[in-house]
Write a structure and sequence with these properties.
heterodimer; A: mainly alpha; B: mainly alpha; 2 domains; about 75% helix
């Protein structure tokens, strides 16, 4: 269980470190700029919206965890 | 055909990698959900990938009639969405209806601006950041998939190999966790619908 949490935290740390490194190399290379450019493509924007929406659906509408299956 | 449909086709012709990659991501996710026998999720991703193919080809003229609402309208809509997401009973019919309304609102709010952002070459540091983020997200998704698979077959089951759902579910069962999720999720949605074009 600890390993599972650790990998997700490492991924989060990697996202933050890579964002910091990019900005250190070029002040214009920010995460907001990255998304601004990616989201300028309508297909990409709608695809990201589908993923975002599904996360909400998955956690709040769908039955994500069978009762008693964990712990 | 409208200017937006022309732009969608030009996007696909001149910058195909992003659109093709994202359509592939949705299609692959749909296949994975199908293999997991999660038919509802497989349908969501399958239909979405097919619709996005049509969007990329400029073949959905009804979308071209959408106009992005004013900032104040988007802000009020976002506040209503956050409250609804925080209070609707989980796993209920009302929650399902709420989320279908939300995707409809999001599609309207994400309509292209009349003054789209001009295309310029990506700086080297930004390209590196894009690849780094893509790799990290893929690693996280593969880890999640591995946990889901191991949780079903390995000794210890989901307690030993928790997926993100298993880790977050206890937090979402409590009001503070639920409110935090509603605020963060809505904020990300507002970011996605409002960025990518000039206001």
């Amino acid at each position: 269980m600890i390993a599972g949490i650790l990998v997700f935290l490492l991924c989060l740390a990697a996202l933050l470190v890579s964002a910091w490194a990019a900005r250190a190399a070029d002040p214009h290379a920010t995460v907001v700029e990255l998304f601004d450019r990616a989201l300028a493509d309508r297909t990409v924007k709608l695809a990201m919206l589908v993923c975002w929406w599904w996360i909400g659906w998955h956690f709040l509408v769908a039955q994500t965890v069978d009762p008693g299956a964990v712990m | 055909m409208s200017e937006n449909a022309d732009r969608a086709r030009a996007d696909l012709r001149d910058h195909p990698l992003g659109a093709i990659a994202w359509i592939a991501i949705l299609a692959i996710t749909g296949v994975v959900q199908l293999l997991r026998q999660q038919l509802g999720d497989a349908l969501i991703f399958g239909i979405a990938s097919l619709l996005l193919l049509l969007v990329a080809a400029g073949a959905l003229p009804m979308l071209e009639r959408l106009r992005r609402p004013a900032v104040a309208v988007t802000a009020m809509g976002a506040a209503a969405v956050a409250i609804a997401v925080a209070v609707v009973p989980r796993h209920s019919v009302l929650a399902g209806v709420t989320f279908f309304v939300i995707i409809g609102l999001a599609l309207v709010a994400a309509a292209p601006t009349a003054d789209p952002r001009p295309r310029t070459r990506w700086p080297k540091a930004l390209r590196r950041l894009a690849w780094a983020w893509a790799v990290i997200w893929i690693v996280a998704c593969l880890w999640e998939l591995l946990q889901v698979l191991l949780g079903g077959i390995a000794p210890g089951g989901r307690a030993a190999h928790p997926a993100l759902s298993d880790l977050l579910d206890p937090l979402l069962a409590q009001p503070p966790g639920r409110i935090a999720f509603a605020v963060c999720w809505t904020a990300i949605g507002v970011f996605l619908v409002t960025r990518g074009g000039r206001r």
